[in-house]
Amino acid sequence: MIGRIAGRIEYRGTDHVLIDVRGVGYIVHVSDRTLAALPGVGEACALYTDLLVREELLQLFGFPTLLEKEWHRLLMGVQGIGAKASMAILGALGAEGTARAIALGDAKAITAAPGVGPKIAQRVVMELKTKAPSVMARAGGLAAAAAPSDDGEVIEPAAPTAKPARQAPAVPSAAQARAIQAADALSALVNLGYNQSDAAEAVALASDADPEAEAAALIRAALKHLAPKT
Prior knowledge:
Elements: E1 4-12, E2 16-21, E3 24-29, H1 32-37, E4 44-53, E5 58-63, H2 66-76, H3 83-103, H4 107-110, H5 118-128, H6 132-137, H7 139-144, E6 154-155, H8 174-191, H9 196-209, H10 215-226
């Protein structure tokens, strides 16, 4: 199983890129959002990948973070959602937007993806709403696990054979920072005894209201949503 690929972009298609890895070209299908964020032809890139095996076809799908790859895996498990629909959802909403829509039960947001109708969107929400909190709780680590290597190697997950050299920590992007804050807030609320699903929905609402809020502010705002209505 190819879990990650790094090399130089040789060609950009409408829904895929051809990545040259030491003389071997890999066609990697990506979402519109990922394609727009990738560098130009001749430049280095790295993506986490998922291999789809069919009877007479092997297809690689690429993702900028493990968080997005995890959502692809979950979406593919929903009846009626294939690779094309999953990539359309992630392309329209991104990993964070997909998590927020599912946590809030917002099927209408899912229909923003081309080719995804109301019935399928509702099924996505119903089947994944209970799984969304656990993914959100791990969102900080998954979102931060970007694929920065440009050494041109295909890398699969493996146990380290030697202690890595100490490196300066990577600075997370704005989206990754928001995911980390939301995950910290969710963890704190669960530790306070709140139901994980309710806590995830409250954090999502708080994050929507103030996307730049840090964990402490998200917790305070979420607690207001969780307070009994009188």
